[in-house]
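Task: encode each sequence below as structure tokens.

Item 1
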Amino acid sequence: MRPVISLPGLELLIQTLQHSGIGVQLDPAVPGMPGAGHPVLEEPFDPYLATLYARCNGGRLGHLRLFQGVGDRGLMTRNLEIRSEADSRHRQVLRFATLDSTAYSLGTVPSLAASDGPQPVVMASDYIDFDVFPLASTVDRAFRLYALYCETCLRKYGGKLDWNPAGEADNVSFPFHFVREVAQDRELVRLLEDGRFEALTAPAPDSRDWVNQILAAARASS
């Protein structure tokens, strides 16, 4: 029997947004979603995503929009559309959420799953270079990182969220403002040190630079 998985990072994100009156709307769960390890687009389904979709059928968390698990524009349909692109790297990421008004999505990398099932999370773009930015070793750690981003924005901008993917120096940007926090994820750092993300990140200069920043921060804190 698989252990029961909790989502404290998701709970922190919900509490952070609700405390400031930011919209949180999770749709009621529906039957038919696969369980942990069951095949989704020929890859095992991440156990944290299985827990998430047992709780809701997608929804909105601030600027973060979770794909529906079941629906015409749901998880399966959206990923099939994206995977029709020529770049084979698209097929290595199972996207489960998108960020408002951007071409960025959050997704797991099933091929890099841990022995007990959890899959690391990246932020992937659909631009020409297909940038991939490793974020966390699990879906829930990615939620915790996004909660930190929201908390930082709300504190800096007087109770408002400000989405800034370009990473201007004066603004809080996700995830680029949080290199040190990402570098504290030892399992993610181990994967990066072992070159496990290289096939996804090496072709894109911005992705390579992000990985180097994380590794440098990890070395500085060790």
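Item 2
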Amino acid sequence: MTAAWLEENKPAAGKAGGECSESVLCDTGLCCGTMTKEGATTAETGSFCADATSLKWANVFEENFTHVCTGLNAMKIGSSIAAAAVAAYYM
């Protein structure tokens, strides 16, 4: 029952605990990466947003997760900056 409720009430994409990808960036202060539930040996499937400083996240049931940033946001931001620099050069 808990798993079903969590699936139906998961955080919005880009928010803490929500999914992220190359096209869905995390909010400021968060980073995109993998999460592993405390006590588990394998990471959750997918990429999720979590605090970029503490590298931790807890759901509403106080299940704690550790986070490893994968750099998806950094790559996307870097690409955007590079594209803006090229556009400015040719203007």
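Check on item 2: Residues 2-89 form one domain. The longest helix spans residues 72-89.
End of task.
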